[in-house]
Task: structure prediction
Amino acid sequence: MKIKLEWASVDKIKHCSWQAGMEYAASLGDDWRLPTRLELFTKMDAGKIKSVPEGHYWSSSPYANGTGFAWVVHLWYGFVIFVSKTFNYYAWPVRERQ
Result:
């Protein structure tokens, strides 16, 4: 069976800190979570869709050299940077579906 990603509807995108995003995704139930850095790359072109807010999106991927940092991906321009988990960026929950 091939596993596919299901992205939460655009109205479920939330602007928040990393921890709040992790908790928010989990609060949706049914295995919702923040996407990995690589999963966010699959949505790069989605950033050009008018209904998707422009900006950086949290990944669930922590930065290996610092526990207070995580990776974000800018869906319009493809920037990938690590930032403090206390900053506010977009959280777009995802889950696996068969």
About this structure: The CA atoms of residues 32 and 41 lie 18 Å apart.
